Amino acid sequence: MKKHHLLKVTGIVALLTLAACDSEDSEDATATNEADEPASGDAESSNDEEASNLEGTVTISGSTSVQPISEELAVPFMEENPDTRIEVSGGGSGAGVTAAQQGASDFGAVSREIAEDETGIEEYVIALDGIAIIVHPDNALSELALEDVTDIFSGEVTNWSEIGGDDTDIVVVSREDGSGTRDAFTDIVLGDDELIDTALIQNTTGGVAESVANDPNAVGYMSTGSMSDSVQGLNIDGAEPTDENIRSGEYPVSRPFNYVSNEDEPLSEVAQAFLDFILGDDGQQVVEDNGFISVD
Amino acid sequence: MMFQKVRNRKSNIEESVVKKILLIMALTSVLSLGLIAFFIFMEGLPFMFNYGITEFIFGTTWDPTNQVYGIFPMIVGSVLATILAIFIGAPIGIAVAVFLVEIAPPRVAKVIRPAVQLMEGIPSVVIGLFGMVIILDLIRRLSRGPLSEFLPSTYQTGYSVLAGAIILVIMILPTIISISADAIRAVPKEYKQAALALGSSQWQTIYRVVVPAAKSGLIAAVVLGVGRAIGETMAIIMVIGNTVLIPELGWESIFAPVRTLTGNIALEMGYAGPEHRQALFATGIILFMFIIIINSITIVLRKKEY
Question: What pTM, to 2 d.p., does this model score?
């Protein structure tokens, strides 16, 4: 029964390595992710028994932007390992780093690059978050510098001609307060600047896309994963908003989602298993399903 | 004799059971209203007191990220959109009702009446979608075209009080029409006959006798329309821009994007943190007050009528 259930959950990977699975009896997430090397499974079949009985609690605290994806990732993991618990709480990226440094949580969640002076922690990039700056398909511009985007959304620039476009006023479309996309955008683009207060507010990605698609003067932003042909995603600092450019770091309106852990304390068995699950194919599929960009 | 008694007792029991059941059902509506009110107030009231009622209601900045919660722009937005909607909708609605009851030949009325009823059944999202695609485009053309000299650039986007009001008109017309029609129908025939017998034309009869006689019913219809307009959410979010700004005074303000009280709650509920949520519940309290006041007016007016 258990084996059947696990096979279902592990999906494609399990199918691809069906032959290996036959000899491995029960598989858990950890083993599945290593199924590319069937040798390890075959050699240590006693290890599998132990792994499927994984129990314990993983605590994650920190960035509220990472919180939803952590919760989404926890669901399939806890389904596969019924005796485990993943506890996700907020607090902000800074609190995430502190929690990891002090060993207060298994993982601290950080939705930005780790600063040079944040030492004593091990970092794992679990996903990437990319934001496309979108305009109407008829907009003459196809490229902007990141500073121009900041100027537009903070209200310093209000006419397209100031940044090389037609002589029309810019209509800024934004997301509502509390939205993860707005949070990311504010983080990366605006920094300490305030969003222009005349911005139109839409509370869905579709709403923003619709507003921009219907107004030749509009500019908005949305997760790169949700882009459609009805709008045009601008190249920023010369880089197209593609998954590859975000992974390589060329496209600037993006940020990594990091898990950080204490450098001196080794991860608990269940924390390691959760991390392996996230970085494995199933975990990264969850990442993509939620509109973020997977890491290799 | 014996038999009769048994039957009487039986039907008595039956009657009291049915009465009780009906009473309980009637109480559920009161109870659910009470529960809703209780929870809204429980969640929102402590926040309002902590934050300061005056700052909350008259504060002009809404910035939950920095714990600033002033809902005055939303109150202005709701009131503006509703007033404009009534301004457009009430005359049309009453005119349609007069036409339906007094003027329209039965064959025409047979087409219009079901159409009005059907209009009431259209889900607000669908009307919103229509507004987003058609009405916004029209207003945008108007404000970027002939009106562009007079309007500030941020009022030229199409997302506006006017767009919201037009959507609201579509939604409140059926209410206004059906209640006005009832009021007009309730005017005693003798009034009309007397007016006609004295030699007034049909239009004079309607204008001088029928409409004044139905006045309180017509006002009740409009007030109910106001209630419906102020509570409308989904369609409004789609066309009104949701910008938290108080429009400039003057006729231009009908082209300004605003946010309504209902829109504020619906927009931000999804991701709100604890305090932010309480602020949204407090917004709900203000909305609740508006609705209570409006409904009280209707009740008073209706009492007058009978």
Answer: 0.75
Q: Do A201 and B267 touch (CB under 8 A)?
A: yes
Give the right CATH number for B55-303 from 3.20.20.140, 1.10.10.1800, 3.90.1150.10, 1.10.3720.10: 1.10.3720.10
Is B156 within 8 Å of A158 when comparing Cβ atoms?
no
Question: What pLDDT, on a 0 to 100 scale, did the predictor assign at position A9?
Answer: 43
Instruction: Give the residue from A96, A102, A93, A105 showing the smallest Cα distance to A58.
Output: A105
Name the residue among A248, A115, A228, A134 with its Cα closest to residue A181. Answer: A134
Q: Which residue has the tokens 């407090």?
A: B282
Token pair listed for A210: 């619709």
Distance from CA of A258 to the nearest CA of B (A): 21
Conformation bin of residue A103: beta by default, left when phi > 0, alpha when psi is -120 to 50: left
- CA atoms in the 13 A half-sphere facing the CB of A180: 19
Q: Identify all chain B residues contacting A180, using CB atoms and an 8 Å cutoff.
A: 271
Q: What are the structural domain ranges in chain B? A: 2-51, 55-303
For B266-301, how does the pLDDT look when each residue is reduced to its tens digit (9 = 90+)?
Answer: 988 877 778 888 999 999 999 999 999 998 988 887
Spell out which chain A residues touch chain B, with contact meaning CB-CB distance below 8 angstroms.
158, 169, 171, 176-180, 197-203, 207, 210-211, 214-215, 217-218
CA of residue A76 relative to chain centroid, distance: 17
Of all residues in chain A, the one with the smallest CA distance to B269 is: A178
Task: Name which residue leads in pLDDT, A6 or B121.
Answer: B121
- Pull the structure tokens for residue B110: 């047979």
| C-alpha pair distances (Å), A139 with each of A160, B139, B242 | 9, 21, 24
ipTM of the complex: 0.79
